[in-house]
Every structure is written in structure tokens, then in C-alpha cells.
């Protein structure tokens, strides 16, 4: 196999987008995906384009919320990236950015909205706090129990089944070699280069030589890190999602709750997607949990998720649930992405973690600039893997 500039590890949204942005800058790229493209988190998520601080970032008290709010500068870049994505990829991605509401049902919820609003303002995201009357005017489909809402006019959603494949198509047009059913099993340095061992769909083992590797393995990014004798503190978590039957257009917004797990939206086809980070359960392999198999839905969580959705939008209460499914995503110890170079392993880059449907195209674009030009057009220092150097400095290089 001829040497390439960059091997991209993982064929979710981040990997497919990075392959595209790298090739657009002239790099020779091979993308290795152990299964099929877009079959994991990137094709199984809720499709929300979150720019306000999600509930998971605000729920652990002021100090941590202030730390987690550092994601906002990246969100503002992602917002601009999403505006241009359909034109860039020459594809309909069902992007709709008609605004997002984070709703409050109690005084405690309103206090959370106010704290969120202050943090968002501090980092330059201009959201508004709407009164009950304003919410009623803007979103008459919401229940009377909603007494306020945080509103940001550019939130929305896109279709997760379309985005990574569109990047992959464009990447292939630019000459990227995409190998699905190809698992990365080894990573070794050889002087200034990396030797990436892959096992392809026929069971053949091959070594690929590359100037750089990009770990875009999502929830499995820690396992890829371990192949390079690195610790990347990212953990796999299993979540669930639900889709409700089609209805006439009713909900133009992305709806979230101030203090509970909920995202709710009506997609182009009229179906209502309900999620928000409710846990599912890893299936077991012996006594250990397995991240290699589909996680199992937890019926009580599905019910609680749907009950909350129907309480907030009474009109969907009579509609049938069509399907629930699960997906595995990666969360770092500090909820920030791992984005950039790993200082202890020259030529090893990572782009993983966080809300990487919203931020994935932006991770990919910026990390490609870093790999090929030495610096990205927007600083990503806040998310650098260097913040875990206190761990990796104990790890000898491979
Ligand atoms: C149910 C659910 C709902 C979500 N909702 C949202 C949302 O609304 N908005 C949002 O912004 N984010 C959401 N997320 C998070 C988002 O989906 C993920 O952050 C994002 O898709 C991660 O993309 P990725 O490309 O990094 O990872 P993935 O899409 O998981 O891709 C990683 C790929 O790496 C491959 N891989 C792993 N190990 C190897 C190996 N050894 N060799 C080769 N390939 C390997 C895997 O097979 C996989 O295909 C949600 C996640 C879930 C699970």
C-alpha cells in the first residue's frame, strides 16, 4: 500500500468530514472504519444543532458550568459552518435553523435559565430570556406549564443520516480512499512517520505508512489512544432516542428543558424526534459491558422521556411511538472535546467527544488545518489534548 499523508481512524461524521477537509487541502488520505460509515453515533443521534449550553453542561453547579461554558466559542464557529454546509457539500442535509427554546416550568428552572443566559452572554452568544407571554406568542404548541424560555434564533437540526455520507461522497471525489469493514489494530511510530496496522474485510492485515494519524473514533477514541500507548480520558456512554409518527407541521423549534433531559423537534418528514440524553444500557459480554454491541433500551427511561415530551407539547400526546433506538457516544472527563495534537506523540491528532453532531464538521475543519498548516484558522487551544499531559507524560512513546 502506498504511503499517505494522513490516516483517519473512524468513519463517523468527524472522520468523514476530516477526510474531506484534508483532501480539499491536497492531502493523500486513507480512512479506515471498522464497520460501515455512519453506523454509530453519527448516524444514530438526535440531529440537534445545539448552540446554547445543554442541560448536561449546566446541571453540576456554577463552578463546573462556568468551565463547561468554554465550549461556546466553538459553538459560534460551528453555527457559521452549518450555515454554509449544504452549499459546500452540494447536498440537501435537511438543515433547519429556525431557533431553539429551552423551557422553564418552575422558579428553579428560571434561575437555571438566568445562570445559563449570563454564561452565554459572557462568551458572546446573544440569547434572550422570554416571558410566559412571549413564549406563548412564539410557540403556541407549548403547554401552559411553561413560564419562561431561553431563546436563541439560530438553533435547529439536520438529518444525521445524510451528513456524514455527504462528506464521504465529496471526500471520495477528491481522491480519499475509504475502507469500511477495516479495523485499526496497531499504531507504531517509525521515525517521523506512523505505521498503522489495519485488518480489512477479507481478514488481511496490512501496514499503512502515514505522516500523521487522526483519531476520529468517537466513543472508541480511548481504545485507539491505547494502541499508541496514550491515555485519552474519553468514556463511552449509551443513550436512547425515539421517533413519533408524522404530524402536520407544528413545532418549528428545537425544544429543550431547563432542568430535565429533553430534546424535541419535528423533522422535514413531519415525524417528531424525542431524545435528550436518556441512558440506555450496555449489553454484556460475560460480566463486562460491551461497547462493541448495540446497547439495550431501558423501557422506564423511554417512557419518562416520552411522558416529559407529551407534557410539554400536549398535541403529540396522542401520536404513536414508531421506534426507539440506542447509540453510543463519547464523553470526556471534563465534557470538553479532545481536539488537536497530542504533545507526547508527534503526528498523532484527535478529534472526539462532546456534541459532535453540532460541532463535528468544525472539529474536522479545524483539526485538518492544524495537521496540514500547523495552526487552525480559529484557536482550539481550550480543547487541546495537552490538558491531559499530566497523565501522558508518564507514558513512554511507542
Ligand atoms: C442517541 C444519541 C443522541 C445524540 N444527539 C446529539 C445531538 O442531537 N446533537 C449533537 O451535537 N450530538 C449528539 N450526539 C452526539 C453525537 O452523535 C456524537 O458526538 C458524534 O456523532 C460523534 O461523531 P464521531 O464521528 O466522533 O463518532 P462516531 O460516529 O461514533 O464514529 C466513530 C467511528 O469509529 C469507528 N471505530 C472505532 N474503533 C475503530 C477501530 N479500531 N478501527 C476503525 N474504526 C473504528 C466506529 O466504528 C465508528 O464508526 C448524540 C449521540 C447519541 C448516541
TrEMBL record:
InterPro entries: FAD-dep_OxRdtase (IPR006076), FAD/NAD-bd_sf (IPR036188). The chain crosses the membrane at residues 6-23. Residues 6-370 form the FAD dependent oxidoreductase domain. GO terms for molecular function: oxidoreductase activity. Gene3D superfamilies: D-Amino Acid Oxidase, subunit A, domain 2 (3.30.9.10), FAD/NAD(P)-binding domain (3.50.50.60). Pfam families: DAO. This is FAD-binding oxidoreductase. The keyword Transmembrane applies. It comes from the Bacteria. GO terms for cellular component: cytoplasm. PROSITE patterns: PROKAR_LIPOPROTEIN. Keywords: Membrane, Oxidoreductase, Transmembrane, Transmembrane helix.
Amino acid at each position: 500500500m502506498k504511503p499517505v499523508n494522513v490516516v483517519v481512524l473512524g468513519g463517523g461524521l468527524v472522520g468523514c468530514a476530516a477526510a474531506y477537509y484534508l483532501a480539499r487541502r491536497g492531502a493523500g488520505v486513507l480512512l479506515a472504519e471498522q464497520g460501515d460509515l455512519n453506523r454509530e453515533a453519527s448516524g444514530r443521534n438526535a440531529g440537534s444543532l445545539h448552540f446554547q449550553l445543554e442541560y448536561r453542561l449546566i446541571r453540576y453547579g456554577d463552578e463546573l458550568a462556568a468551565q463547561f461554558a468554554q465550549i461556546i466559542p466553538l459553538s459560534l464557529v460551528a453555527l457559521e459552518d452549518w450555515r454554509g454546509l449544504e452549499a459546500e457539500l452540494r447536498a440537501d442535509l435537511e438543515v433547519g435553523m429556525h431557533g431553539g427554546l429551552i423551557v422553564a416550568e418552575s422558579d428553579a428552572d428560571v434561575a437555571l435559565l438566568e445562570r445559563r443566559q449570563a454564561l452565554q452572554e459572557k462568551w458572546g452568544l446573544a440569547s434572550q430570556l422570554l416571558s410566559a407571554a412571549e413564549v406563548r406568542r412564539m410557540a403556541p404548541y407549548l403547554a401552559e406549564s411553561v413560564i419562561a424560555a431561553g431563546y436563541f434564533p439560530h438553533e435547529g437540526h439536520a438529518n444525521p443520516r445524510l451528513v456524514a455520507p455527504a462528506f464521504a461522497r465529496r471526500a471520495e471525489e477528491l481522491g480519499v480512499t475509504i475502507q469500511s469493514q477495516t479495523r485499526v489494530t496497531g499504531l507504531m511510530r517509525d521515525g517521523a512517520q506512523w505505521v498503522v496496522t489495519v485488518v480489512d474485510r477479507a481478514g488481511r492485515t496490512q501496514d499503512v505508512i502515514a505522516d500523521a494519524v487522526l483519531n476520529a473514533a468517537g466513543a472508541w477514541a480511548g481504545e485507539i489512544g491505547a494502541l499508541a500507548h496514550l491515555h485519552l480520558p474519553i468514556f463511552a456512554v449509551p443513550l436512547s432516542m425515539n421517533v413519533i409518527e408524522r404530524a402536520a407541521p407544528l413545532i418549528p423549534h428545537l425544544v429543550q428543558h431547563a432542568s430535565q433531559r429533553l430534546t424535541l423537534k419535528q423533522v422535514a418528514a413531519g415525524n417528531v424526534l424525542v431524545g435528550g440524553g436518556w441512558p440506555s444500557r450496555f449489553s454484556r459480554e460475560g460480566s463486562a459491558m460491551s461497547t462493541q454491541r448495540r446497547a439495550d433500551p431501558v423501557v422506564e427511561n423511554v417512557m419518562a422521556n416520552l411522558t416529559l415530551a407529551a407534557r410539554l407539547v400536549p398535541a403529540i400526546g396522542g401520536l404513536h411511538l414508531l421506534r426507539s433506538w440506542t447509540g453510543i457516544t463519547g464523553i470526556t472527563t471534563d465534557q470538553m472535546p479532545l481536539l488537536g495534537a497530542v504533545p507526547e506523540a508527534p503526528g498523532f491528532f484527535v478529534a472526539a467527544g462532546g456534541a459532535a453532531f453540532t460541532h463535528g464538521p468544525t472539529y474536522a475543519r479545524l483539526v485538518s488545518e492544524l495537521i496540514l498548516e500547523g495552526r487552525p484558522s480559529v484557536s482550539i487551544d481550550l480543547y487541546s489534548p495537552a490538558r491531559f499531559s499530566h497523565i501522558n507524560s508518564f507514558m513512554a512513546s511507542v
